Amino acid sequence: MIFHVKDHSRRWVSCNQAALKLLRREDLLQIVGAREEDVFPTAAADAIKEDDLRIDESKCCTSTHPIKGDIRCERKV
Known about the structure:
This protein is an alpha+beta fold and 77 residues long.
C-alpha cells in the first residue's frame, strides 16, 4: 500500500517506504516539500493535482490514480 500525506499547498510532508520506492527515493528527506510536478511527468502531475483539488472540495472521494488505478480514500476534517 502506498501512503503519503500532503499539506494544503500540495507539498509532501510524509510517506511510507512503498511511496519512496515508487518515486525511486531512498530517504523521506528527498521528498518532503516536493509537489507532484517535482517527481512525476507533467501529465501524471496534472492529473494528481486535479484529484487533490477535488478531494479538498469534497472531503471524501473515490479517485483514479494515473499510476496505480482506482484508489478509495476518506478524509476527515
